[in-house]
Amino acid sequence: MMFFSPSRPSVASGLWQDWRDDVACVFARDPAARGLPEVLLAYPGVHAVLLHRVTNRLWHADWKLTARLLAAFARWLTNVDIHPGATIGKRFFIDHGAGVVIGETAEIGHDVTMYHGVTLGGTTWNKEKRHPTLGNNVLIGAGAKILGAITLGDNVRVGANSVVIKDVPPCCTVIGIPGRIIQQKGLKIQDPRGIDLDHHLVPDPVGKALSCLVDRLDELESNQKRFVVAEETCGSCEAEGVCHGEDVVMLKQAAGGK
User: Fold this and answer.
1) Mind naming one GO cellular-component term on file for this protein (predicted)?
2) Closest Cα partner for 94 from 26, 147, 176?
């Protein structure tokens, strides 16, 4: 597994090249993008990432107050809250750019995509690594919460509104509260009758469990009706114990018959 190395921004490619990559990746991931002017003027997620490239450099240059003030302006402008200390790789795209929160010690790899409402949050007040680390090519669905100093490997997909609090190996798909792995390295872990995962077709484990429960109740009721019919057919026969044996009589009584 290869992660983006959180080296100082001065060692990485220049700010201008990072901006070019951040804008260019939008056209590959958003079919609604019609042209460069539209992306530059009407995409708050892009604005947030471009401004973060600046605040992150200021942060590492020890202009921390200036970095925080510019980050606060970016939050006011875009409704995306990215701490200047967060480490973000190349070609990062926040689609719709609303309600995203990325904490100070978060580390994000290359070619990561997030949708609105995502949180990369911490679970401790200690001054230590307390936010998630994301590998390359990770996709985080709308409203998902990734909490704590956990690691999501390369090519991980997180379903919308999931809450992930444990490490996730590479090439896995995670859904639910708390998040659980339903697909790994091309092998589907969920029930074969489940929905094939696309980002917009995540399985519903609760709904599926209720559906299975209803099917089971229907089966039990059908079995009970068979016993009742059998009882109505020969219920008055005095030789029932001889014909069917005591075990059948006891089974009918357990099913609600006489």
Assistant:
1) cytoplasm
2) 26
